[in-house]
Write a structure and sequence with these properties.
Blueprint (H helix, E strand, L loop, with lengths): L23 E2 H8 L2 E2 L4 E2 L1 E3 L9 E4 L11 H6 L4 E4 L12 E3 L3 H15 L3 E6 L4 H12 L5 E3 L9 H7 L7 E5 L8 H8 L3 E4 L13 H9 L10 E5 L5 H10 L3 E6 L5 E9 L2 E8 L2 E7 L4 H17 L3 H7 L11 E6 L8 E7 L5 H13 L14 E6 L8 H7 L11 E5 L3 H7 L5 E5 L2 H5 L2 H4 L5 E5 L7 H9 L7
Parallel strand pairs: 4-5, 5-6, 6-7, 8-10, 8-11, 9-10, 11-12, 12-13, 13-14, 18-22, 19-20, 19-22, 20-21
Antiparallel strand pairs: 1-3, 2-7, 14-15, 15-16, 17-18
Family: Belongs to the MurCDEF family. MurF subfamily.
Keywords: ATP-binding, Cell cycle, Cell division, Cell shape, Cell wall biogenesis/degradation, Cytoplasm, Ligase, Nucleotide-binding, Peptidoglycan synthesis
Subcellular location: Cytoplasm
Length: 494
């Protein structure tokens, strides 16, 4: 199957805009990009991927691991309205509809800028070391009950993902939620300026991508740069509890923007109580409108914090935060970010199941602490399985991009406050070996050099009645263990 995006990029899913609504005409796209169309065309969407392209899409021939120009003929054959290119590729007909520009990525950014300029939508931009995508999905869930929302279906938060998300934005949407990420210094401010948000939210600051920065303070300053793109009168919604909150607040003060703080240390959006139990979270908070309670159908103190931040952001956007609090119960985390599922090991035996917590998309010390707290909040099921006694089991893969102290950071997890509540910890990868060696003997399960090697032992790692957390950085491939555990399951008896 043709692939014209990086291999670790999730395929596109259905676009927010109706497939029957014209998103871009050749005239408008020419004006936005300064390019020249070879024929008149109307596009109902924008795509960078021939695997998922829809009839009527404008195909953007980006160059990544493969040159998108190699896939233009295929895109047109699949019904693309036109292709955004720097030249007519070989094998493409002379009369094919093309939008020719000097630079494809720059033209995509220009489309995004034009789309942002022509909409009256209220725009929320979200960044943070942990929780960007979950917070974006929370915002989508609650704002969709109060208007038409545009947001990327996947975690499109980089130098091409943000322009792509903007370029797909319908002119008549009421709200837009844009996720902005970074791997290196200097990446967030340009994307925020392109986005021009009314509200910018920072979920938290932690040691993700620390290898690219001198220290966590540098990460905080980079995250704070999302404030640079705020429109006049914009609002910065900031985590009051992160250790670098003062840096965020100083940055906002220098930019003279309105600040709204959320968390236990906030005087306005104050987190008062969080209770975790069997996959659910109950939250009590004080808000400018009085006490508020909301419930999440997934467990996690970090989700409670993000939820409170989203309510503050909704209020700043002019939406109803009370209605949003009620609608938070409709949200569920995206795949690989803390999802809860039941795996039936033997459909013929009652309760011969285990609970699988799939958190295999990303990991750093902050998110690992949050995930372990969630695992500790569950009660395993006794009197089933080989071992009879249900267990809380963690299966952990390497945390990447933590910098020169990464081995010590892995070992330090042995002192996490949730560790005593666990029964068994399996580890995969050379970095996680440092945690494995630091664990008390009674908690040590299996260690393997790679996630693939650990996945081959899946049947020995877990048992009926267990609650199993699988977590690690995406590049550690710990999701192979998730897949292997799922394959242990059987369909429910009917």
């Amino acid at each position: 199957m043709a692939q014209d995006t990086p291999q670790d990029t999730p395929p596109e899913t259905a676009q927010t805009a109706s497939q029957f609504t014209i998103l871009w005409t050749s005239h408008d796209a020419d004006a936005a990009t300064g390019g020249k169309s070879t024929a008149k065309w109307d596009a109902t969407g924008v795509s960078i991927d021939t695997r998922t392209i829809q009839t009527g899409d404008l195909f953007v021939a980006l160059s990544a691991e493969r040159d998108g120009h190699d896939f233009v003929a295929m895109a047109l054959a699949k019904g693309a309205a036109a292709a955004l290119v720097t030249h007519r590729p070989d094998g493409v007909a002379d009369d094919a509809p093309l939008l020719i520009v000097p630079d494809v990525l720059a033209a995509l950014s220009a489309l995004g800028q034009a789309a942002r300029a022509r909409t009256s939508a209220k725009v929320l931009a979200i960044t943070g070391s942990v929780g960007k995508t979950s917070a974006k999905e929370m915002a989508r869930a609650v704002l969709s009950r109060q208007g038409r929302v545009h947001a990327a279906e996947a975690s499109y938060n980089n130098h091409w993902g943000v322009p792509l998300t903007l370029a797909r934005m319908p002119q008549d949407c009421d709200f837009a939620v844009i996720e902005i990420g970074m791997s290196n210094p200097g990446e967030i401010a340009p994307l925020s300026r392109l986005t021009c948000p009314h509200v910018a939210m920072i979920t938290t600051v932690g040691p993700a991508h620390l290898q690219a920065f001198d220290d966590i303070n540098g990460i905080a300053r980079e995250k704070a740069a999302i404030i640079d793109g705020l429109v006049s009168g914009g609002v910065a919604v900031l985590n009051a509890d992160t250790e670098t909150s003062e840096i965020l607040q100083r940055y906002a003060s220098k930019r003279e923007v309105t600040q709204v703080l959320f968390g236990q240390m906030s005087r306005t959006w104050a987190l008062k109580h969080v209770a975790l139990a069997q996959g659910k979270t109950l939250v009590q908070a004080d808000t400018p409108n009085g006490p508020l309670m909301f419930k999440l159908l997934t467990a996690g103190r970090h989700f409670a914090m993000n939820g409170l931040g989203i309510l503050a952001a909704c209020a700043a956007l002019g939406a109803d935060p009370v209605q949003a609090a009620m609608d938070l119960g409709q949200w569920a985390p995206p795949a690989g970010r803390g999802t809860h599922e039941v795996v039936t090991l033997d459909a013929a035996i009652e309760h011969e199941t285990l609970i699988l917590l799939d958190d295999a998309f990303n990991a750093n010390p902050i998110s690992l602490t949050a995930a372990l707290e969630v695992l500790a909040s569950y009660t395993p099921h006794d009197n089933v399985g080989r071992i009879i006694k249900g267990r809380r089991v963690a299966i952990l893969g390497d945390m990447l991009e933590l910098g020169p102290h990464e081995n010590a950071m892995h070992a330090e997890t042995a002192n996490d406050p949730s560790i005593p509540a666990l029964h068994l910890i399996h580890c995969a990868g050379p970095r996680m070996r440092h945690l494995y060696d630091a664990l008390p003997d009674n908690l040590r399960g299996q260690w393997a050099e790679s996630a693939d090697a650990l996945a081959r032992q899946a049947a020995q790692l877990v048992d009926g009645g267990d609650v199993v957390l699988v977590k690690g950085s995406k590049e550690s491939k710990i999701s192979l263990v998730v897949d292997a555990i799922r394959k242990l399951g059987h369909p429910d008896a009917t």
